[in-house]
TrEMBL record:
All residue ranges annotated as the Dynamin N-terminal domain in the record: 55-208
Protein name as it appears in the record: Dynamin family protein
PANTHER family in alphabetical order: SARCALUMENIN, TRANSMEMBRANE GTPASE FZO1
Alphabetical UniProt keywords: GTP-binding, Hydrolase, Membrane, Nucleotide-binding
Cell location: Membrane
Pfam hit, one: Dynamin_N
Species this protein is from: Brevibacillus ruminantium
C-alpha cells in the first residue's frame, strides 16, 4: 500500500508579497552580520517569486538517484557517476535546452546537455570550484517552474558534499529519500529523514532495487511491514513509501508508475505546496539565524559563564539565575533590616520598660496611712508626751519614717523590682546576645529609698487627704523614675552589644551583597544576550507574518 499525504493550503498566496517579505528578512539579517542565512533567504525569495517547485532527491550514492531521475525524465541528463564538484548539486528543470555551471571563479559557464556533460566533469576535475549546476531540458514531466535537485549521497566522506546537501534543502519543497533495498535500516537514513520531518518537509521514501529481494527468505509484505515499523520506532511518519526496481520494470511489487504519478500530482499542485513549504523553510531559516547570533555571542557568553565560576555565594548555585535573584532580594532585605535594627531594638526595649513601669502599682492603703503619719510627724509643733518630749518626739518621727520606707520597699520589691530585673535580663536573648557581666549588672541594680528621698518629695501645704494621695503619687513616680534611669542605662548596654554584633554581620552581609550583585549583573548580561537573540527571531517572525 502506498502511503501518500496531500499538502493543500486553504487560501491563495500572494507570492510576490511573500517574496518581498523574505527579502526584507534577509536585509534585517544582514544588519546583524549573518553572512550565510540572508543568502539562503534571497534564494528562497527568488524561488517564491517564480512560484518554483523543487523536488530534491537525497540518499546514498548507491541508491540509484541519478538513474531514477534519468528514467523519470526519459533522457540521460545525469551521468551514472556524480559530477565531482565541491557542491555537487544538480538542478534539472523544464524549458529550453541548456546546461549552466555557476562557478566561484569563472562566472557562469554554458554547456550543451546532450554532448558536453563529460566536458563539464573534466572542467570540475581541473580544479575550478563549481557552486551549482542547472540543466534545462524540454519534453519531460517538468516545466520551467518545476525542478528536480540531485544532491550528493548523505554517506559521502567528503564534508563539502554533506554541506552542499544541507545547503540546498531550504529550497526543497519535497524530499524524495532513496534507499538501496539492502540498506534501508542504516542509522543515517533515520537521522536524516527525522531531521527533515522535524523541519516540516514533506518526505517520500523510495526503497529502490527491490529486485534484490528473495521471497523465500521473507515474503515482501513482511519486508514492507519491517520498513514501516523501523521508521515508526524513530517516530518518523513519511508522507509516502514507494518500492521500485529500474532493473526489472515488470517486477510485481514495482511501484515506479505510482511514484511517477505522485510526482506529477505534486507538480500539478505546485502553488499550494510551494505556499506552505516556503513558509516552513523561512521559519527554519529564522531558527538558523538565531543560531548564528548565538554562535556570535558564544565567546562572550562563555566569558560570562567563566565569571560565574569564579564567584561563590554560600547556599546557592551561582549559575542559577533564579537562585541568585532570590538570594539577592533576601540579602538586600536583611541589609535594610540590619540598618534599622539597633534603633528598632532600642525602641522596643524602651517601650517594654515603659509598659512595665506604667503598670507597676507601688502605693496602697497601707502606704497612704504610713505617708499620712510621716507627713504629720514633719509638721511644726509635732510633739509626743510631757516628759522627755524631745526624745520621744524624735523617736516617733524616726519610727514613722521607717514605717513608710518599709512599706515602699515591700511594694517596690514585689511589684516592680522583681519584674524589672526579669525583663531587663531577657533583653539580650531577644537579639541572640549573651553577656554574663550584663546579667550580673541587672541583678545588682538597687534603687535606694532613704530619708532624703522621702523628704525631697514633701511640699508645703495642708495635710489633707488629697495632699497625702498626691505625695504618695510623687513617691511612686520618683521610684519609677529611678528604675527608668537604671533601665535606660542597661538598655544602652544591650544597644552597644547589638551595635557590635550588627557591625560584624553588616560586614559579612556587605561582602555577600557584593558577590550577589556581581552575579546578578552577569546574569542580567546573559539574559540580555538571550533577549537580543529572541527579539531577532520575533522581529523576523513579524516580518514574515505582516511585513516590515
Amino acid at each position: 500500500m502506498v502511503l501518500v499525504q496531500t499538502h493543500i493550503m486553504e487560501r491563495a498566496t500572494d507570492f510576490a508579497l511573500l517574496a518581498d517579505r523574505l527579502e526584507q528578512m534577509a536585509s534585517s539579517m544582514e544588519k546583524e552580520k549573518d553572512e550565510v542565512t540572508p543568502g539562503k533567504l534571497l534564494q528562497l525569495a527568488a524561488k517564491t517569486r517564480e512560484v518554483e517547485l523543487n523536488i530534491a532527491f537525497c540518499g546514498h550514492f548507491s541508491a540509484g538517484k541519478s538513474t531514477m531521475i534519468n528514467t523519470l525524465l526519459g533522457v540521460n541528463l545525469l551521468p551514472s557517476n556524480p559530477i565531482p564538484t565541491s557542491a555537487n548539486v544538480v538542478k534539472i528543470r523544464g524549458g529550453e535546452k541548456a546546461a549552466r555551471v555557476y562557478t566561484h571563479h569563472n562566472g557562469v559557464l554554458t554547456f550543451d546537455p546532450d554532448t558536453e556533460m563529460e566536458k563539464l566533469k573534466q572542467f570540475a576535475v581541473d580544479g575550478d570550484t563549481v557552486e551549482w549546476v542547472e540543466v534545462s531540458y524540454p519534453g519531460t514531466l517538468l516545466h520551467e517552474q518545476a525542478s528536480l535537485l540531485d544532491t550528493p549521497g548523505i554517506d559521502s566522506t567528503d564534508a563539502a558534499h554533506k554541506i552542499a546537501t544541507e545547503s540546498a534543502l531550504h529550497l526543497a519543497d519535497v524530499v524524495i529519500y532513496m534507499m538501496d533495498y539492502n540498506h534501508v535500516q542504516a542509522e543515517e537514513n533515520f537521522n536524516f529523514t527525522k531531521t527533515l520531518k522535524d523541519r516540516g518537509k514533506p518526505v517520500y521514501l523510495v526503497v529502490n532495487m527491490i529486485d534484490k529481494h528473495i521471497d523465500f527468505e521473507l515474503d515482501f509484505d513482511s519486508y514492507k511491514e519491517s520498513v514501516e515499523e523501523a521508521f515508526a520506532t524513530w517516530n518518523i511518519v513519511p508522507d509516502g513509501i514507494f518500492y521500485t526496481s529500474l532493473a526489472e520494470p515488470d517486477h510485481e511489487e514495482n511501484q515506479y508508475e505510482a511514484f511517477r504519478s505522485m510526482l506529477t500530482q505534486l507538480i500539478d499542485n505546485r502553488e499550494q505546496l510551494v505556499s506552505k513549504t516556503v513558509r516552513d523553510a523561512a521559519e527554519h531559516l529564522i531558527e538558523e539565524h538565531v543560531l548564528v547570533l548565538k554562535r556570535e555571542n558564544a565567546e562572550k557568553r562563555q566569558g560570562l559563564e567563566n565569571e560565574l565560576d569564579g564567584l561563590h555565594a554560600a547556599d546557592i548555585d551561582s549559575h542559577d539565575g533564579r537562585q541568585v535573584t532570590e538570594a539577592l532580594q533576601a540579602a538586600e532585605a536583611a541589609a535594610s533590616e540590619l540598618t534599622g535594627r539597633v534603633d528598632q531594638a532600642r525602641k522596643h526595649m524602651e517601650k517594654e520598660l515603659g509598659v512595665l513601669l506604667d503598670n507597676a502599682r507601688l502605693t496602697y492603703y497601707s502606704t497612704n496611712e504610713a505617708a499620712e503619719q510621716y507627713l504629720e510627724s514633719r509638721k511644726p509643733g509635732f510633739k509626743m508626751g510631757l516628759f522627755f518630749a524631745g526624745k520621744k518626739t524624735e523617736e516617733e518621727r524616726q519610727r514613722r519614717l521607717e514605717a513608710l520606707l518599709a512599706d515602699l520597699r515591700e511594694k517596690t520589691e514585689g511589684n516592680l523590682d522583681f519584674h524589672f530585673k526579669e525583663l531587663l535580663s531577657k533583653f539580650p536573648e531577644k537579639f541572640e546576645l549573651r553577656d554574663d557581666a550584663y546579667h550580673t549588672a541587672v541583678y545588682a541594680t538597687k534603687i535606694e529609698m532613704n530619708a532624703d528621698f522621702l523628704a525631697s518629695r514633701v511640699k508645703d501645704g495642708a495635710s489633707t487627704r488629697e495632699y497625702v494621695m498626691n505625695y504618695c503619687s510623687d513617691l511612686s513616680n520618683g521610684i519609677k523614675a529611678e528604675y527608668r534611669r537604671a533601665g535606660m542605662g542597661l538598655i544602652e548596654q544591650v544597644v552597644s552589644m547589638l551595635k557590635r554584633k550588627t557591625e560584624v554581620e553588616g560586614a559579612q552581609l556587605q561582602e555577600r551583597l557584593r558577590v550577589l550583585r556581581e552575579l546578578a549583573q552577569i546574569h542580567a548580561q546573559l539574559q540580555q544576550l538571550a533577549k537580543t537573540e529572541q527579539a531577532a527571531g520575533e522581529r523576523l517572525q513579524a516580518i514574515l507574518r505582516e511585513g516590515a
